[in-house]
Amino acid sequence: MIAPTIPLAETAITPGAFEVLVEDRSTAARRGRLATPRGTVETPAFMPVGTQATVKTLHPDEVLATGAEILLANTYHLMLRPGVETLERAGGLHRFMGWPKPILTDSGGFQVFSLVDRRTIREEGAEFRSHLDGSPHMLSPERATDIQARLGSDIAMVLDECLAFPATRDGAAASMERSARWAGRCRVRLEQLREGEAAGVEVTNPGQAQFGIVQGGVFPDLRAASVDATVAVGFEGYAIGGLSVGEPIDVMYETVAATAGHLPESRPRYLMGAGTPEDLVECVARGIDMFDCVMPTRNARNGQLFTSQGRVNIRNARHAEDDGPLDSSCSCYTCRRHSRAYLRHLYMAGEVAALALNTLHNLTFYLDTMQRIRKAIAFRSFETFRQEFLRSVSRLAVES
Amino acid sequence: MIAPTIPLAETAITPGAFEVLVEDRSTAARRGRLATPRGTVETPAFMPVGTQATVKTLHPDEVLATGAEILLANTYHLMLRPGVETLERAGGLHRFMGWPKPILTDSGGFQVFSLVDRRTIREEGAEFRSHLDGSPHMLSPERATDIQARLGSDIAMVLDECLAFPATRDGAAASMERSARWAGRCRVRLEQLREGEAAGVEVTNPGQAQFGIVQGGVFPDLRAASVDATVAVGFEGYAIGGLSVGEPIDVMYETVAATAGHLPESRPRYLMGAGTPEDLVECVARGIDMFDCVMPTRNARNGQLFTSQGRVNIRNARHAEDDGPLDSSCSCYTCRRHSRAYLRHLYMAGEVAALALNTLHNLTFYLDTMQRIRKAIAFRSFETFRQEFLRSVSRLAVES
Prior knowledge:
Two copies of one chain form a homodimer. By secondary structure, the first copy, chain A, is an alpha/beta fold. Chain A has helices at about 60-65, 75-90, 95, 110-115, 140-150, 170-195, 220-235, 250-260, 275-285, 295-300, 335, 340-350, 350-380, 380-395, and strands at about 20-25, 30-35, 40-45, 45, 70-75, 105, 120, 125-130, 135-140, 155, 210-215, 235-240, 270, 290, 305, 310-315. Chain A is globular, with a radius of gyration of 21 Å. At the A-B interface, helix 2, helix 12 and helix 13 of A face helix 2, helix 12 and helix 13 of B.
């Protein structure tokens, strides 16, 4: 055995127990704490994306060093490779990947819906062919729930129908209604699992929470109806899906504000798939507690780096002899140890080491931003922080 | 400034000072210590290859964790990118790449000679076109010496003519004689640099040692003549070049034994570009003190891993559910934290993290092997160690 089983909390916790510690006075921002079987998550929180059971380019100790308290992993990718059975026999996803803290798994729906030519959606669920080998698979609300139980994640997501932008009102309505029906089926299945009434599925993490997902596109009345339907089912937390898919930024912010405002105050609110550093601050101001996004990791691999003074394209020739750190305000390994000149050299020379050093920095920048947001809310200075942050990150135009 | 200048030793050292601590009784193996301006190197030593100012996939702290005490860097690659001027303005190669321990630089000759269609060799030196942009460059014995002085490496190599295998006796003789003349010119130039008589070249590391290189192909009399000519010039150490280029293994071992036997006992002996773990042990037994090779790092990136029980191809399906460590005798991060199943998953999924974890292990295996060799010589048990090592590493056939 390579590593001890990652221990669950010794005393049973209420799945998804959430506490709001401080509410901001001038915005909808709140400072909170989410309990999971593998430790608490201070909110507002950012979840790095570990698609294939790894945060790309980093090993677990490096991810911990960025300050991350929870990761997101993708059920679609993991069910295809290495496969649910392999992960189950390895003692679950945490032990397989050597990550000791909480993991949120998505339902796989988003990836399946993006396989436009390879999937068929019915009321029962989604049939699709693997992008790896064309093998046929089925993802239903019940199966998505079972798979996440078998992976042993700390927070599971319901299977929802993901709508492309733009969508007609009728399309968005029909899709939202199906998502609401599927949410109900996911919850019924989870309760069967909790009661031990689901033959053949071993529940390794009885404290797993389940979050519902609000859909409805950019139509305020559909969003409100989706909130009502999802809250009526009853989950430990609520996500806002179907945003950050190409809609104008002000539409996204308005939809977030309206939707978050309808959600229960006592439950965590998770905005799926967003966003830029500015989006994090702006959506915290609108009541969001949790985020995930591939932007810090993907941009790092493309040489696009986030700093306290704006974005930096490390390929730019102006950095070729820059002896200074990437971000003098940052305490990550990359900024403590290396110059912009060296980072540019590694990137231009095609060295893999550049990808890890860049990722380490971008993730640290995101996690540091969340920590600053939490402190600002706690110290009653969030609105001041927000104005200063937006000024500084946009001080330099994006380097192309 | 991103990092302090890597300090040189406070008191002046004799460049290349070398001490033989223990001589093995039954073989030509010896346990020694090489002094450099940036610390001592315990020998026999293995030098990981940091071609482009980085050991591929790792950052400096990870390389230090493998136990490496000295790196090799490639002058050819560095002179083209980022360029000697950039490295000089950055305060030298050590500071640029954040590596605090000794560095040996090659002369660039080996890479230039491999540019078969892009180079012209004359007595003056080698003219070549960059593999990056076709720009014309010249590498002469004097220029190779100057560049290495400007990089500030701790050990510089002479420019030699590198012969392909197989070669005719006449070809090998002519090439060996030219290498000897070039060695003389390199030494004259180094002495000019040391005396401050080389206008325009700033010597940042006055304790830099210079090693000569013995050539002569697989012809014993040419090797002996090359030793005589190179030792007559006089260097702080001597390398054996032109081996590990395709000749049969027994011919390599015989040539190493004969050549090392002719070299001065009081100076370090460096076998360039070798080899497998078995080669390290066998060539230590024949009197070699220093090695470099891309095998541990390159094989790691191809999924070929060295273990105390033989070689492992991590892509092999038999590892898909193997919960055990890659090598239970290894204390590297990879072996302490991850299972074979996880390493295989990362590799098959094309994750960059696999390359770093594999490299970390393979380098640790090489450096651990050197440490075991050094201990065995010191404890008078080298011959026993050698027999057991060869039995264990060849216990399993190479996995394909």
